[in-house]
Amino acid sequence: MVDELVREEEMTEEEYEPLILMFATERCAYPCADVAGLSKITYPPNVRLIRVRCCSMVPPNLVLEAFRKGVDGIIIGTCYPQDCAFKRGVERTRERMKKLAPKLREMGIEADRLRVEAICSVCTNVFKQVTEEMTEILKLLGPTPYAEARAKLHKEKEVG
Predict the structure, then answer these.
(1) In CATH, what number is assigned to the domain containing residue 100?
(2) Helices 124-141 and 29-38, axial angle in degrees (round to 10)
(3) Residue 128 maps to a domain
(4) What is the pLDDT of residues 105-122, one digit of tens each?
(5) What value, to the nearest 5°, has the Cα angle with vertex 69 and ends 110 and 48?
(6) What's the structural domain count of the chain?
(7) Which of these, 69, 58, 48, lies nearest to 5 by C-alpha position?
(8) Is residue 93 a part of any domain in this protein?
(9) pTM of this prediction?
């Protein structure tokens, strides 16, 4: 799944566009992205969306795998805790992602590259702001140590 969303980016200083993967809940963040698109609200084109039933269904090992494959940043777009249909899904997700911090450090990945953010289904301004902020943060941080893995994966797909 992550392989299909990873694409090669030119990595020059001036043109660097970070690749952001957003796991978006089907009741909140994903419909918000849809409304933003239908309303012609522009947000960074470097954001790739994956719809998930609940944010708590994003396994930590998938987050780590995405970083290893060269994704520059990950946003987990949750519902607001009081709106979570899966009782405590948002809380569990925040706890699980906080526990990833030591593993991310071991991999040479800054904590700012992973963000858990509540986005309601009609809050397009929040969606736009979160994606733009994440893009700017990642531009300041630059490519991950795994950026070459993304380029290699892309080249393998072209050959095969």
Answers:
(1) 3.40.50
(2) 100
(3) yes
(4) 999 999 999 999 999 999
(5) 85
(6) 1
(7) 48
(8) yes
(9) 0.85
Token pair listed for 157: 């797909």
Question: How far is it, in rounded angstroms, from Cα 102 to Cα 109?
Answer: 10
pLDDT tens-place string over residues 145-157: 998 877 666 666 5
Domain assignment of residue 1, yes or no: no
Closest CA relative to residue 18, chosen from 156, 159, 146:
146
Write the CA distances from 19 to 3, 44, 72, 117, 141, integer angstroms.
13, 10, 5, 18, 13
State which amino acid sits at residue 90.
V
- Domain interval for residue 102: 17-155
Residue 3: inside a domain: no
50-109 tens-digit pLDDT: 999 999 999 999 999 999 999 999 999 998 877 777 778 889 999 999 999 999 999 999
